[in-house]
């Protein structure tokens, strides 16, 4: 069983600051007709941004050496794009709601999301919005574009100062049956990825044991379905990870920096006897998953191995200060939107470029002149499949087979 994963870009607030992004998606589609990610709100039926250079239409997998062709890209070159429901962007939707998961303090509003100087920007303010303490933004490709295997490339810059607490920027993917920030849509589905019938396992509402899927859904009976989660990149202070009981060496050595975290969250979980205690490394008695490998500057995320019914396979890696955008006021094009959500509170923006395809080879991944760094996720479903994460062309986080 494998899910179609839609992409989310978010800046949750527990305090705040800004960030930026660009993105591409590579894969092997069965046809050329699909959703679109053009650089303006007018859709011409193409998945590929007209501003994407011709030399970026193909790539080679960094892990398998196979060729991939571009199927979706977004360079965000059109200034001042908007992503609310009424703007009808062909690939992204900026949600307008409070996200209650993980104790988030921010109200997500499209007013905090726009494009400037060839990047998507997500701002966070500390002045409050609709009874929430902070205002921030989250965009997602739900019901517009999703990935069943291939490569995701994202260029990004993290918000604020290195190691600063209070923000939780993330680039992540969720099975398209559920929707990020809508908890009820994920009940009994997240993060299941299980296609066999096992009546001893509970909690999966669309299991392979069921002959009665949701009435009117059109789903076939006796087919397990779920909403697994893949976090391409989450950021948090390395000091948080350094607090683990086994004192992770990389986090301790970089206690003043931000750490990136990559995870695969999946259910059902392994038997409890195989899971290490939170804060401790795997051992002969509690071996965790086999076939996990790590890059030179990454370690297993021993702080948290999952919840009661699911596992979290994660790795962390320190990020240098160059991965951050210094705090600044919104650019002139975003100032009115920031003011509408509450006067600017000294936090900042996150910067992104986005798309589905594959990145150039490692030696062709220079830092851009905008200061964006490059993150890649390579994914093949099935029994012989794999998940691989790369930072600036090098395997920094984990690899799972």
Can you describe this structure in just a few lines?
The chain is mostly beta strands and 401 residues long. It is built from three helices and 23 strands. Strands 2, 3, 4, 8, 9, 12, 16, 19, 20, 21, 22 and 23 form a twelve-stranded mixed beta sheet that branches. An eight-stranded antiparallel beta sheet has the order 5-11-1-13-14-15-18-17. A three-stranded mixed beta sheet has the order 6-7-10, with no helix packed on it.
Number of helices: 3
Helix content: under 10%
Overall mean pLDDT: 77
Low-pLDDT runs? 12-19, 28-43, 329-370
Multimerization state: single chain
SSE topology string: EEEEEEEEEEEEEEHHEEEEEHEEEE
The chain-level structural class is mainly beta
So what's the overall shape?
A: globular
Overall number of strands: 23
Radius of gyration, CA atoms, in whole angstroms: 20 Å
How far apart the termini lie comes to 15 Å
Largest sheet: 12 strands, mixed
Which band does the percent of strand residues land in? 25-35%
Plain-language structure description:
Mean pLDDT is 77; it is low at 12-19, 28-43 and 329-370. By secondary structure, the chain is mostly beta strands. The strands form three sheets. Strands 2, 3, 4, 8, 9, 12, 16, 19, 20, 21, 22 and 23 form a twelve-stranded mixed β-sheet that branches. The chain has an eight-stranded antiparallel β-sheet with strand order 5-11-1-13-14-15-18-17. It has helices at 238-242, 249-253, 332-341, and strands spanning 5-13, 20-27, 58-60, 67-74, 93-94, 97-98, 106-108, 113-116, 119-124, 134-136, 138-140, 150-159, 167-175, 229-237, 258-266, 292-294, 299-300, 311-319, 324-325, 348-356, 373-380, 386-391, 398-400. The longest helix is centred in the C-terminal third of the chain and has 10 residues, at 332-341.
